[in-house]
User: Fold this.
Amino acid sequence: MNWVEYFFFQIYPYLCLAVFAIGCWARFDRSQFSWRAESSEFLEKRTLTWASNLFHIGVLGLLMGHAAGLLAPPQITEFLGLSAHAHQLLAVGAGSVFAACAAAGGGGLLYRRLFNTRVRATGRPTDLFILLFVYMQLWLGIFGLPHSLMHSDGTIMETLGAWCRGVITFQPDLPALLVNIPLIYKLHLITGMTLFLLTPFTRLVHVISAPIWYIFRPGWQIVRRNRHVANEET
Assistant:
C-alpha cells in the first residue's frame, strides 16, 4: 500500500461525503432556485424522450443494484439462499441490462448535447462536463464486467462490499482490503466517489429531490361542467 492508495481509499471517501453533505445543504439554503435540472425539451424533443428515459432507467437501476449488492451484509444474501457465486452472477446479469440502457440513453443525450446546435448553444459547460463524467464512470463499470465473469466465485464483490461497509462504519486500514482488486475497479471507485464531490456544484443535485412520491400520489379527477348549467344551479 502506498500513499496514493491510502489517500483515495481511506481519506478521499470522507472528503467526498463531507463536501457532498455540506455543499448540498449550503446550496439548498442559499440558492434553492438553482436546485433543479433545467429542461431543454422545447429545443429538441425526439431524441430527448427515448434517450432520457433509457438513461434514467439504467442509472436508477444501477444505483439501487450497487446499494443493495455492496451495502447489504453477507448474512442477508445467505438468508436469501444466495451463494457468493450466485450473488455475483446476478449482479453481473442485472448490471449488464441496466448498463446497456444507461449507455444507449447516455449516448443519445451526449450526441444531442454535442451536435444539436440549439441545445449546444444554450447549454452550460458544466452540464456537458457532468454528462461526460457520468458516461465515463458508466463505461469504467462496463469494462469491469469481464473481470467479474472471470472471477465469478464472488470474491471481488465480497471485497468491494466489505470496503463500502467499512467506509460507513469508519473502519481503519481500508486500502488493505483492495490490494488484490484489479485497477479498473479502483478507478470505478474513485470516479464514483468524485461524483459525490461534484454533486453540490452541478445539476446532479436534482437526484436527491427526485419526485418519487409523485408515483404514489392520490388520484385526482377533473370534472368539466357546462357554464350555463352551473349558472342555473347558482
The longest helix spans residues 84-115. The radius of gyration is 22 Å.
